[in-house]
Amino acid sequence: MHHHPQPHISTPASASFAATAAFDFKPAKRRGSYNCGRCGLPKKGHVCHLNSSTNPTSISTPTSSPSAVTVENSSSASRPPHAPPIRQSYTHLRRALSFDDIETRADSTERDLDDSDSPYPGTDLDPDNEMVSGGLPAGCLWEVLRRLPPAGLLAAASVCKGWRETTKRLWRAAEELRLMVPPRGQLRFIGSVLKKCPSLVRLSLKMESDVDATMLACIAFSCPNLESMEISTSNTAVNRITGDELGRFVADKRCLTSLKMEGCSNLGGFVLSSSSLSTLWLSDLYSLSKMVFNCPNLKEVSLEFSRQENDTTDLTTMVDAMGRSCPRLQNIHIASVRLSHAVVLSLTAANLRGLRMLSLVLGSEITDASVAAIASSYSKLELLDLSGSSISDSGIGMICNVLPNTLSRLLLALCPNITSSGIQFATAQLPLLELMDCGMTVCDPDSQNSPCDESGDNELPNALNNKLHLMYQKLIIKHSRLKKLSLWGCSGLDALCLSCPELDDLNLNSCKNLHPERLLLQCPSLQNVHASGCQESLIGAIKSQVSDSMASLENQFQCKRLADGSKRVRAPDCLSQEASDDKKRRKVAEQQCKVLVD
C-alpha cells in the first residue's frame, strides 16, 4: 500500500493573499476605449456588424502557474480518471483503493486550437470572427486568458471593457475549482470566489484555516449544483465540523456524488442519507458513537481512523450496518488498529456481490482464519490489502488458490509472519499480478546489532554467525506482468533475483543486508529503483546492472540480420530504417532508469 497516498496545491501563502486583495480591489473609473470592443474600428459613427452574444461554456486555467486558485472545465480534452492524491505523510499508509495510479493525472488542460471539439459548445459563434480591443480575435484572447492563474485573470479584467467581459465569462463557465484558503479572511475569500462561479460542480479546498459549519453553509448556498467536494487540511488547521452538520449538508445537496474530507476527529457520530452519493472518504476519525449509511448507490468508501489506542469505535456494528444499507459497494478501505477477525466476519456476512477492492489495514488481529473467510465470500477481488495484519504464508496460499484469475494487486506490507517463500509462491501462482507490496515483511530482528554496526572486536562466535546466516533469505521472482514491486525495509534479504520484463518500479529502500554479488536484475523496462538506506556497493551494483540493460537495449538497433537469416551484421546507415529507429531510440531514451538515493 502506497504511503500515502495521495498532491494538492503547493502554493505559498503570499499568492493566496494576493488573490484576496485582487478580489477586494476596485479600480478607479476611467474613460472607455475609443475603438469598438469587437471589430477594433473607431466608435464614432460606427455600427458594428459582428455578433456580440458570446456565451462560452468551457474554460480552463491550468495549475502550472503559481496561484491559489485553479479553474477548469468539463469540456476540455479527455484526461485519465481522477486518482486520489497522496495526501498523507510518510508515516501514513496510502489509500489502496486508488493504488492503480500508473498514469498520473494531467493538471494542465491546455487545448489545441485545431481541436475538433469546440470550446464554445451549444453556440454558433466563430471566435476568430469576433474582435476585441486592439483587433485581437476573441478566440485567441479566450485561449490566452484561460491559461492565466486567478491573480493574473483578475488583473486582466482591469485592462479594458472587452477583457473584463471575457474574464467574467471565464468565471461563469467554470465547472471545477481548486482553491487554497488563506489563514485569515477565509469566509469572505471563499464567498467572493464562489459567487463568480455559478456553474461550479466540482470543488477542492486546501484549508490553512479552521473549518466549521459556517464554511459548509457558504458552500451549500453558493454551489447549488455541486457534485464533488474535497476538503483537505494543513497541519495547523482544525476541522470543527460535527456529524450532525455534515449529515445536513449531505442531505441538502441532492446532486452530490463524491465527498472527501480530512481531519474528521470532531464528528462524534453521523447519519448520512443520500441517494446520489457514490464516493465517500473520511480520515482521522475518532471514537464514533454511531455511523449510519443510508446511501443505496454508495460504491466506494474509505474510512481512516486515528491510531490512538483509546478509540472506542465499534467497527463490527459499523461494518454490519454498512453492508446492509450499501449493497452496491465495490471498493472498501478501512484503516484502524481495532480491526479484528470479528469485523471481517461481519463484512463477509454482508455478501457484497460487487466487491472488487478490499483494504483492511493495521489490523494486527486479522489472521489466516480471516483470510479464509474473505476468500470464501469474495472470489472476484482485484485488489487485496491486508497490510499490518498477522497472516502467514498459509494465508497467502489461500489467496492464491481462490483468486488466481482476478487478483492484480496484492499489498502485504508490515506483515511479520510472511517469509520470502510466501512472496515467491504468490508471484508464481498469480499470473495477473501487476503490483505487490511486501515492505517490512522479511526483516532481520538483530540487524541493529549486526557485526557491521559494532566498533569493537569483529570476531564473533561461530554459533552466532551461523544463526545470523540462517535468518537471511533469498527471493527469486519471475513474472511476465508484474509492474511494481516494493521490498522496502526487507533487511532479512541477502539475495534477490528478478526476471520481470514489465517491471518499471522497484523499491529496495533499507534493504541493508542485500549483497551486491547476489543481486540480479533482468528487468529491461525499469524506470525507477529506490535504494535509499542501502550500502554503497549495492547502489553501485544496481546502477551497473541497469546501465548494462539499457546498453543492450540500445545495441539492438545497431545490427541487422541478412535476408537469408544466415548471420547478424552491422547494418549500414543507408539500409537502416531511420524513421522507426529514431522512434525506438527516443523511447529507449525516455526509459532511462533512475536510481533514487536520498
UniProtKB/TrEMBL annotation:
Q: Name one GO cellular component term.
A: cytoplasm
Transmembrane regions listed in the UniProt entry = none
- Region Disordered, residue ranges: 52-88, 104-130
Looking up Pfam families in the UniProt record yields: F-box-like
Comp. bias intervals (Low complexity): 52-67
Family annotation (Gene3D superfamilies): 1.20.1280.50, Ribonuclease Inhibitor (3.80.10.10)
Q: Any idea where the F-box domain is?
A: 136-172
Q: What is this protein called?
A: F-box domain-containing protein
